[in-house]
Amino acid sequence: MRELNGPTLPRRSRRGAALLTAGAAVTATLLGVSTVPAHAVPTAAVATARSAAAPDISVANVKAHLNQLQSIATANGGNRAHGRSGYKASLDYVKGKLDAAGFTTTVQQFTSNGAVGYNLIADWPGGDADHIVFAGSHLDSVSRGAGINDNGSGSAGILEVALTVAKQGYKPDKHLRFAWWGAEELGLVGSQHYVRQLPATERRKIDAYLNFDMIGSPNPGYFVYDDDTRLEGVFKDFFATRNIQTEIETEGDGRSDHAPFKNAGVAVGGLFSGADYTKTASQAAKWGGTAGQPFDRCYHSSCDTTANINDTALDNNSDAIAHAVWTLSGGSTTPPGGKVFESKSAVAIPDAGPAVESPITVSGVPGNASAALKAGVDIKHSYRGDLVVDLVGPSNRSYRLKDSSSTDSAANVVATYTVNASAEPANGTWKLRVQDVAAQDTGSISGWKLTF
Questions:
Q1: Per residue in 401-446, pLDDT tens?
Q2: FRET partner for 196 with CA separation of 20 to 30 A, picked from 128, 396, 421, 444?
Q3: Spatial distance between the Cα atoms of 216 and 107, rounded to a whole number of angstroms
Q4: Are 302 and 78 contacting, i.e. CB atoms less than 8 angstroms apart?
Q5: Which residues of 75-89 are buried (b: 16+ CB within 10 A; e: fewer)?
Q6: Which of 160, 184, 185, 202 is catalytic?
């Protein structure tokens, strides 16, 4: 979250703000973007009774992303700020995860303070492109620290929600889009650039933009944006199921990336766990923590590291993000007529050893497999760059899912791959083949599935 020059603006100070002027239009084909004036948002765009229940988001996975962002900052001068190598490395990490999961990603460039900046946009295939549910977080830190709560927390939260969309094989009625913004700390530069490039016709397609900036504060509060009452209600309903009281977010109004969308007429919502303001006694009574202390004492400081995260707040807010995405987009986990075949058997992967295989027997599927066969993979491994992963069809033909890479130091392979297996008979034994090609790291196949 960016710092304001002077006191924080009152909550209502932006109600009469003028609309952003649309800049040079970039085609929807290039950007894959859109938006909608708040007054034009149809009720059906906000909630749908037929939506599938949102899954629980693994806080361990969210924290694993935060560990990677911390490692990136440590290796790049201690920060992930705009124009610094740590920011680009952070973007590359997120993009790699999304590409492997089957998202369509676009990197958008802009210039600020004499340096090139980057936004990352990720679209999940399918859904009504005229009705878009959009979740975003800024990925950059300040130059003084790693920015793990501000805003690694929001970035990691929406990343794991996006990866869960893929892992679940979710088929939303509405189109899903996620974004990681650059140069937010310099004044919302990346998100403003994105919005200014949107043609008005594309802008009107966004049913909701949801913003997540600081969701794991160490002395946390539970704050909900009140910019749109319907979106506010979606989040409040979720927290009510966990007996968590919420307050209206007033501390950061206009200080994060929802502002350019709102000023352009898009319905916005979001969550916030608090920055440098002081927690009151009444807030400590309902949320726990320490009264008289900031929600985040390391805000914009060098101590904003992985030690500066409250796991419970991170978990609750990540689950709330998933609840909003699933509720607002509608849809189902398995497409009508679709069949899922799954193995949950664990198979150990020997260190620098021979390939191992996990079989699945498919039956009752007529004809050949799809040209867009989905292979969902869950591999636990301490260094995923050591792994070569192949899907082997009934004809014994091999389809490469993932190559080894000495630069991919992340842990685990949790992804959904799309395979053109249209020349392969659907019925028969399919195998996931995994080989560890380098020494010193171990793991196992936890499970995998095929969706026809």
A1: 999 998 888 889 988 898 998 889 999 999 999 999 999 999 999 9
A2: 128
A3: 27
A4: yes
A5: ebebbbbbbbebbbb
A6: 184
Measuring CA to CA, which residue among 137, 2, 144 is closest to residue 81?
Answer: 144
Q: CB within 8 A of 291, min separation 6: which ones?
A: 279, 280, 281, 283, 284
Rounded-to-integer distance, Cα 21 and Cα 265, Å: 11
Neighbours of 362 (CB within 10 A): 18
State yes or no: pLDDT of 290 exceeds 70. Answer: yes
The pLDDT of residue 338 is: 61
CA atoms of 352 and 230, how far apart (whole Å): 54
* pLDDT tens track for 127-173: 999 999 999 999 999 999 999 999 999 999 999 999 999 988 899 99
Is the Cβ–Cβ distance between 243 and 285 less than 8 Å?
Answer: no
Instruction: Tell me the residue type at 89.
Output: A
Measured from the Cβ of residue 19, the count of other Cβ atoms closer than 10 Å reads 12
User: Which domains does the chain show, CATH number per domain?
Assistant: 25-329 (3.40.630.10), 340-451 (2.60.120.260)
- Please indicate whether residue 202 is annotated as part of the active site: no
- From the list 149, 449, 145, 176, the residue with the least C-alpha distance to 308 is 149
